[in-house]
Amino acid sequence: MIETRAYAAASANAPLAPTQIQRRDPGAHDVLIDIQFCGICHSDIHQVRDEWGGSMFPMVPGHEIAGVVSRVGAKVTRYKVGDSVGVGCLVDSCRTCKSCKEGLEQYCETGANFTYNSFEKDGKTPTQGGYSTQVVVNEDFVVRIPDNLPLDKAAPLMCAGVTLYSPLRHWNAGPGKKVAIVGLGGLGHMGVKIAHAMGAEVTVLSQSLRKKQDGMKMGADRFYATSDPATFEALDSCFDLIINTVSEGIDWNQYLGLLKRDGAFVVVGAPDKPIPVGAFPLIGGRKSIAGSAIGGIAETQEMLDFCGKHGIACDIELTPIQKVNEAYERVVKSDVRYRFVIDIASLKK
Ligand code: NAP
Ligand code: ZN
Ligand code: ZN
Fold it and tell me: How many whole angstroms separate alpha carbon 86 and alpha carbon 233?
């Protein structure tokens, strides 16, 4: 066993605090990663606070992991010591169901093995995430971070990046397509950058115009405040695709009016409460509401290569782990530009 420093929540009401966890000794197909940076995703907060139900404690969150390979198992072929790598939300899956065979491990029909708040492949050892100094992962669930991307700014691509890349690809964002991103947070700002690089026309729908300058710099063509009712009149029937990244419940019906005929409103933000939707806003215009979860491993690598090619990385605020609880408070208040990333060096001291 490998003794590992980490930060964990003891219960849903407890702040994150220092602890020690054990990682398995790397097996033949495993890679030991020296974690350097880990992003703070809003999903970490939902799960630490048990907002989705079923959280398991103690919990070491963190699924936006970037680090360097420090040891490899005897049969590892893809990675060697010193490689810059990432781990996202998945550490394994059944590998045999239709979804896994199609490279859509996030939709594994028996339930994938998630990086934390889940179980390892043995079905009984709880997984623990990236707010820690090292992690052991099967090489098939490790991805390569392009050399031109700094590891701290690349870390959030592992969840925020691929969670937007995947629906943008699936719903064919590109030249001639009008895409709106709702919420300019960790996920949303990656959506703007990636959709812009894909050639789509990008509009940000944010609560206010406070982040307008940043959004335009990221590649947005237009920026509107959703607090202003005039926005919903001005943008009536405008978009082919709307991706909603908001972590709270908002009135989806209002946004359906902004779709063109056959447009899709895709939900990636995950509030805890159900949201009622009327039949008529969907029927008129053959519109759809859909959901999308992260991305598979091959698609995560494709996204990283795309970001490497286009020089896309995240706008981050680096924080020592000792300030993680304050960082959580600021994320909840939408007061971060645009992703907190934990400098894991602060945990090694
Ligand atoms: P985040 O950084 O907190 O961003 C959410 C953004 O939503 C905020 O920056 C804010 O943008 C907007 N917002 C917040 N509260 C709002 C409210 N009451 N009304 C309207 N807008 C509001 O969070 P994130 O890390 O990007 O994650 C966003 C959501 O996606 C979370 O629920 C997370 O769990 C979920 N998620 C889903 C997946 C998936 O696979 N589907 C993956 C990762 C995360 P403005 O200031 O611009 O309004
Ligand atoms: Zn996430
Ligand atoms: Zn499967």
Answer: 43
8 touches 58 (CB < 8 A): yes
- Identify whether the C-beta of residue 127 lies closer than 8 Å to the C-beta of residue 65: no
Q: Would you say 27 and 73 are in contact if contact means Cβ atoms under 8 Å apart?
A: yes
Question: What's the pLDDT at 262?
Answer: 98
Residues 6+ positions from 188 with CB-CB distance below 8 Å: 164, 181, 182, 204, 206, 245, 338
Q: How do residues 214-251 score in pLDDT, each as one tens digit?
A: 999 999 999 999 999 999 999 999 999 999 999 999 99
CA–centroid distance for 158 within its chain? 6
CA angle, residues 189, 225, 163, in degrees to nearest 5? 25
The strand pair at 178-182 and 239-244 is best described as parallel
Residue closest by Cα to atom 11 of ligand 1:
183
Would the pTM count as exceeding 0.85?
yes
Ligand 1 geometric centre to CA of 13 (Å): 21
Q: Taking Cα atoms as reference points, which of 51, 31, 220 lies closest to residue 140?
A: 31
Distance (Å) from CA 208 to ligand 1 centroid: 14
Is residue 59 within 6 Å of ligand 1 at its C-beta?
A: no
Q: Summarize pLDDT for 262-272 with one digit per residue, the tens.
A: 999 999 999 98
Angle at 228 between CA 226 and CA 230, to 5 degrees: 110
Q: Is the CB of 293 under 6 A from ligand 1?
A: yes
Q: Calculate Rg over the CA atoms of the chain.
A: 20
Tokens matching residue 102: 């199609």
Q: Does ligand 1 come within 6 angstroms of the Cβ of 247?
A: yes
- Structural tokens at position 128: 């623990």
pLDDT number for residue 13: 87
Low-confidence ranges of the chain (pLDDT < 70): none
